[in-house]
Amino acid sequence: MRGKFGDRLLHGYTWLIIAWLTAPIAVMIIFGFNDKKSKSNTSWQGFTFRWYRELFADSSLTEALVNSLQVAVVSTVLTTVIGTALGLALGRHRFRGQGTSNFLVFAAISTPELVMGASLLSLFVSGNTPRGVVTITVAHVLFSLSFVVVTVRARVVGLDPSMEEAARDLGAGTWTTFRLVTLPAIMPGVLAGAMLAFALSIDDYVVTSFVNGSTLTFPLWIMGAVKVGIPPQVNVMGTLIFGIGVAIAIANAIASRRRT
Amino acid sequence: MTKTQAGAEGATAPSAAPQVPAIELDGVVKEYLAHGEVVQAVKGVTLSIAEGEFFSLLGPSGCGKTTTMRMIAGFEDPSRGAVRLRGQDVTDVPPNKRDVNMVFQSYALFPHMNVWENVAFGLRRRKVAEADIKRRVGEMLEIVDLTGREKRRPREMSGGQQQRVALARALVNRPRALLLDEPLGALDLKLRQAMQIELKRIQREVGITFVYVTHDQSEALTMSDRIAVMNNGLIEQLAPPREIYERPATTFVAGFIGTSNLLTGEVERVADGHAVLKAGEDGRVLVAGGAHRAGDPVAITVRPEKIMISTEEPAGEVSAVRGTVSEVVYLGTYNSYVVGLPGGAEVTVFQQNAHDSSSTAERGDSVWLSWQPQHSYAIGS
Predict the structure, then answer these.
(1) Is the pLDDT of residue A142 over 60?
(2) Does B122 contact A176 at a Cβ distance shorter than 8 Å?
(3) Chain segment B87-117, per-residue pLDDT in tens
(4) What is the DSSP string of A206-260?
(5) Residue B205 counted as domain residue
(6) Domain containing B340 — which CATH number?
(7) How far is B134 from chain A (nearest CA, A)?
């Protein structure tokens, strides 16, 4: 007999896990409203909207955030385009070098970030490439590409190949077929891949720290500020990024419910 | 005479006035390279399909029927030979420029579009005016009995409904010919039989040439005006269903279509327009037609329902063979007997349960089998 006690235990455990997962986020949000007087932002000293008003008061932090957003947007677009093409090719066609391509996609996922960062740095140094936003963007495309490939490929493999033939049969040329039939059919995979790429890019520290030169991104700026005390604006920015992420996730859930 | 030529010879439509055929295949060959070896999927098919005809390509899987259809649609390029639509050579025309449409085995509906958008897809590609699209899609949905479901997504519909959407999506373009690739394969038996009748009705209603690929002989026999039975990349016989069934041209056709008994023997004598084969101690097999001479080896087929089963020796100008019943199966409307002949051959006999349900013979009984001379059909090997 699994009595009330077992049920209650399960409930308690579930809530414990939820609390465990959300506590850090809650702390981040709450301390964005902390009216702190001292250097560090670790003890509650009163409620204020000041940090929201003075969100962009620290110009170097703002610049780091702008860098991060710029890199994330550009690398997500590039990654999604290249990754979708690659995912389509790997999922649909049989060709020479396919095994190697599949292996490389997997290898890129499983390579430790430290290794990838160090090797990219030596590549850029030996190529005399000036480090900055461009090299960061290239690095982000590299480590997030495989994730887009994998999500798109999974979608492509599940597609009925005669669907494209049907479109051709009904008078659609190659490009029209792709635009009206193939792309909408794999869209959930493409979107999932794009969101993954964005999430990976916006908070990457390890690889970025190798190839950034003197440019700072949002995560790099925070790590630099740890010793002197993180300003509450970081909490506010984190809160906003989190809020946008949640909004996108909810919108996606609603959209996919409408699709099915 | 080669088998290909046999196909060409029977290719004139039964009731066609002299007009350009809807579809012509002229010596079409399809070769693949598989593991460094050339494999011929289609070894030379010549046929012509008349306007408005319901034409079936029938054969076991791997016989080349689907490849043949895909060459008509344009999804496969013939290695040799030509494809003509209404006399126009379209061998090098891509599928999106060919005036034929296809219904796929998997339906291949567009999952992100609703029924209406699926059906309108082809007309939109052809830049038909929006008002015409509205009218034609509406009419077509009425024909396939889907009015009121325009806003449904394919996945919200049953298999039979999806099938009808696929049909409407192809037919709404008023193609020269509609190609159907085992379209009923995924449906259960009841729905399938209903759809067979439905398809035939729709074909009469729209008057479009149907080319139907199937491995199901009863489906082909039920619906077709003519059937091309294919085996191993070649047409074995091309004829109306009745002729295919009653007078199979080859052993393969005899074996593939329905149940058939194959008997072989040597012509003993020719008398009264019959060739008489000896069968066992006291048996005889009569074959109509005078094309045989004494001493010729002959193979014949007899359909199980043409054979009478009796305990006494039948009299008259009939084939009569003695055998022992080795199996009796009750099948509702008829009984099926398997009778072993002295030579080792086995003959299947269907006997209608017309009078009473007790069977004429039991397992182990010694019986006489008899049938009319015209039901012994001599076949080329």
Answers:
(1) yes
(2) no
(3) 999 999 999 999 999 999 999 999 989 999 9
(4) HHHHHH-TT---HHHHHHHHTTT---HHHHHHHHHHHHHHHHHHHHHHHHHHHH-
(5) yes
(6) 2.40.50.100
(7) 17
